[in-house]
Amino acid sequence: MLVRVAYRIAGTEEAAEDIVHESFIRLIEKRIPFATLDDAKFWLIRVVKNGALNYAKRKGREARAYERWWRGERTETEATEQEVLRDESKGEIRHYLDKLPENLRSVLVLKEYGGMSYKEIGKVLGITEGNVKVRAFRAREALLSLMEGDGKHVS
Amino acid sequence: MCPEPGLISAWVDGEVPSPWKERIAAHVASCPECAARVARYRRLSGLLADAAPIDEEAIVSRIEASLGGSLDGRPGASLSPSPAGAAVALGPSREGPDDSRTGHPRFWGRNIPLPLPVAIAAAAIFLFFAGVAATTFIRPAKPDIQTLAASEIKPSDSSQAANMEALVHYLESQNAQVNLTIQLPSGTTFDSSGKPFVMKATDANYAPFSQTDTSSTGSEP
Q1: pLDDT tens track for A69-87
Q2: What is the ipTM of this complex?
Q3: Does B133 reach chain A within 8 Å, measured CB to CB?
Q4: Portion 51-90 of A in contact with B at CB < 8 A
């Protein structure tokens, strides 16, 4: 589940593996005395989630920097082709998931890919169950309107 | 009257308790608008689930291997809160969330059944790991909680060092519940560079205070 959550946020299998691996290492090295196994579990999930979000943020920044440089390098026709290719990726739901604000994305990923209950998600994120419920709802609506805004018919 | 969309969303997630759960179910069955909303959310969940599946098990095994996995014959620790639950939760699982964990039916369940021996093996591996993890760093929470806030230290007052030592010795000798509050200075003391002088509290990793994972530090403007 950790790997799935990491993958859905970070985007690649390699990144997911690294993030989860590193999170376990941190758990072992820090020797934090958790009161219960659940506490350890939630800590670990939180660390993985944050690691994946940070990775995605970093990658996004790098990608945008490359984009800016690349657009400068290309001629106009080549640039348009690139844009068409990029639009293909819009078919991927991941493209839209990445556009969600982090706090909404986290809840949705933990729910849909982590299979966690609102209560558990609340423990991982340090928010109330009610807050999780609202965020899950908002995340869904935001994702749907992003997709439908791009003409992706959902239902 | 239709339930709020947020409530429908929670209901789709199986998070609404009885008796409202059944009432909403009845309403959805007879209300086209709400039924459409439900279908929309479920379709979204389906799209999310379908997107680019990965070989989670392979990745997990690689991680385990590189974490020093001689997970051999170490007996799964008999701890309580459901190590099996944690194991299944954190280990590789089928596409789609695990039914038994959350305890309620999945509406969009695309549970691709994993061959049973593989599922057992995966669960067993993680049970070992959870056991290792648990024996390594689960310690039952003790009732004493020690909180340190910032304390006031004047640069010229060298006797403060001695006081801190005495304080530390005192705390070390205590095993019972100790509530320690140190008042923040009501005024402010500035050192020569103009920064208010506060002292960082003891690092929470220092042995006598390690029962909770809290550490407070003095604030800086």
Answers
A1: 877 776 655 656 655 555 5
A2: 0.81
A3: yes
A4: none
